[in-house]
Write a structure and sequence with these properties.
rod-shaped; mainly alpha; 3 helices
Length: about 80
């Protein structure tokens, strides 16, 4: 299984970048009164936000992130 922490971090970074680019594109569309560019930018912004949040969930679900020393101690006693 792929390391969810690394995959999540990559998705967070890519999502944040996509979100920022989408916001700029939407703002440029507003400034140019270009509704098509505005809608495309806001769509990209939303996709980036979703990807960023998926990355956060992946990182939270990584079993290696939440393991503490007491878990390994219990397994040795069994």
């Amino acid at each position: 299984m792929e390391d969810l922490n690394k995959k999540g971090a990559a998705n967070e970074a890519k999502g944040a970048a996509k979100e920022a680019v989408g916001k700029v594109k939407g703002d440029v569309g507003d400034a140019l009164d270009n509704s098509s560019m505005h809608a495309e930018g806001r769509g990209d912004q939303l996709k980036g936000k979703i990807q960023k949040n998926v990355g956060k969930v992946e990182r939270a679900l990584d079993p290696n992130t939440h393991r503490d020393s007491t878990d390994t101690d219990r397994s040795r006693r069994s």
